[in-house]
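Let's sit down with a protein and look at its sequence and fold side by side. We need material for that, and I hope you will provide a protein of your own picking. Once you have written the record down, we can walk along the chain together.

***
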Amino acid sequence: MSSSLVSKWRTRLGALMSRLRRKYALRKGREPKSDSSPTVGEASRAHAGGIGAELLGGSQPSEAAPLVVEDRRKGEGGVPAVVAVDDLLIDAFEARASDVHIEDHAEGLRVRYRIDGILKDVEPPPSELRAAVLARLRVIGGLDLAERRRPQDGRMRIRFKDRHVDVRISTVPILHGESVVLRVLDPIERAELDELGLNSDDLTRLTEVISRPHGMVLTTGPGGSGKSTTLHAIVQRLSTGEEKILTIEDPVEYDIHGVCQVSVNEKAGLTFATLLRSLVRQDPDVLLVGEIRDDETADIATHAALTGHLVLSTLHTTDSVSSLPRLVDLGVPDYLVVHTLEAVLAQRLVRVVCTSCAEEADFRDEEIKALGKGAEGLSRGLQGVGCGECQGIGYRDRTGLYELLVINEELRDAFMERQSRRELRAIALQHGMRTLRDDGIAKIHAGVTTPAEVLRVT
């Protein structure tokens, strides 16, 4: 073989190896060594439906350099997709939205904000920007632009005015594109334990329970009922610097000063159960477990509570009394339940009447009748008529309805005797437990909320 032919094949082989190295570097998320090669962000954007980098406005922000959103609606101009996404985020933050829903339908994008628990439609970006807007959200959320067949989760930190706001992003493929949901984790929304809406008696009893050195305290309710907020408020109340507090969360939503927080990562094998098994060896005083969802987690948590730790967690039950049989369903022996469980706090969230437009009005007879016992004297009360402060809704902010069950000896004996849930509930009521409905009726009397809201959640 002639030397010229050998040299020719060497050149071709070298070029092929160079291309393979660049492709491998891009897949691993590294910059190729060659200055002329595209960056990871450029390669991903070029692959995402032909959308160029000029439409997306740069790559995702890092933890050290959060994304800064700017209000360009006064005519300063900017990249259209970037302006559209910035406007969506600014409007969501100013409206106190907890979630932003962006859905790709055949006729265009549909955008909704969840404000005080209720979804509200808002003006979507122009239809010609739908692909660019979705791609921009993927870029700043750190998602793979080329992957559209599988759900993805990401996170971003955004600088808005004088604070940093964390936003979780979740994408799911749907019929005509994808559904993107942004969960807004605004630090100003965090509340202290005495700001959650607990009545004075329940607050005193709960404070006494969480001051005990060991045992288990549960919060229960459906998703979005404020359980994690309550647990974080309890942790902040307990955190004095003289104790070791560890949390396991999926994921970590708010950074709590002085507390060691661990995020679940099931892909890496870090489940609630495996993390809890490791954390009990960290000499903790207080353990917060984001959710007891399986028998292994329930078993480790109850044994941790039995061996000198205060364990805080959540459970999905409709009321407080149902938590006792639910733990047995998860494989915890009944004797362990009664010896470790100290209290259960069931809760719901209701909207608060807007104080700027509240007026005395008659309640509907059918609503009063549906509320049942305790609502007989209600006929009039405060209702919001709608104003600029509440965006015409009549409600602004939310508060909790609570049902606090403190476990006592009579309840323990009744549970061990296999008495029914109705009998257990009757014992709890005899010892001063106020039901969710009763707490709601009390808040109607106080002018905090309305019969319609209480009936909606209880």
In short: The chain has 16 helices and 16 strands. The mean pLDDT is 86.
